[in-house]
Amino acid sequence: MIAKHIRLFVIVVGCFMLHTTLQSQEHLTKPKTKFYDLRGTNAFDAALGTSVINGDYQDPMFEIYSHVGYKRHLTPHLSLDFGYHKFNLAYIDLYNEGFMSFDLNMELLLLPHHYFSPLIFVGAGYNAANHFKQTSPKLQAGLGVECVLLPSIAIKLYTDYNYVSSDTLDGLEAGASNDSYFRIALGLNFYFGGAETKSKLLSDYSTEIQANSITDDKN
Fold first, then answer.
1. How many Cβ atoms sit within 10 Å of the Cβ of residue 30?
2. What domains are there in the chain, each with its CATH number?
3. pTM value?
4. What is the distance between the alpha carbons of residues 47 and 55, in angstroms, rounded to a whole number?
5. Quick one: which of 186, 209, 109, 196 has its CA closest to 151?
6. What is the mean pLDDT of the chain?
7. pLDDT (0 to 100) of residue 201
8. Angle 10-11-17 (CA atoms, 0-180°, nearest 5)?
9. For the chain, does the N or the C end have fewer beta carbons within 10 angstroms?
10. Whole-angstrom Cα distance, residue 65 to residue 51?
11. Residues 107, 120: contact at Cβ < 8 Å?
12. Average pLDDT in the 177-199 region?
């Protein structure tokens, strides 16, 4: 049963990446914009999605997942992202446990000067069951796409794979490898900061005042 879930996950990611490639090629033909006209040096983000475990039992099920975080751009391409993740991992009629993780990622935004951009990220984190009944470090990696809807506001779709340094995530120690889980989510990035952003906003505001003044003079 778990192999079925993994195959489904691979198919979804494959379709997702194909769509991303086609969209990226389309946007590469459009003129670039300045990075801070679209995004800021900092961002708060929030997301909602689903999580599924790859552990020692059969019949895993998809459960609720949510995330909030903060991102700091070091360059237009690279950012450092710290996030708090709350989610459940479950098997049908057998196991359902709440977890949280604290993740630190390095994220690469492939097309930072375009409205639409693929992204990839890797990092490390700390995984804990509710009330910290069990804890363990982990590694994670993921990919996604980001689309700017309005200046400083972007929608993001992403998925990640989390490898935990423990084989007791599901309460059973069995098998030759440690437990892991996948997460898929849709969320929003709220960008702020950046001198160019502030300069552009002030410039637009000044232009609007001048245009209104000219219109009033003609009347």
1. 10
2. 2-218 (2.40.160.20)
3. 0.73
4. 25
5. 196
6. 79
7. 45
8. 85
9. C
10. 6
11. yes
12. 81
Tell me which residue of 43, 102, 96, 91 sits closest to 67, measured CA to CA: 102
Amino acid at 20: T
Q: How far is CA 201 from CA 66, 137, 191, 192, in A?
A: 33, 43, 14, 12
Which residue matches tokens 């980001």? 146
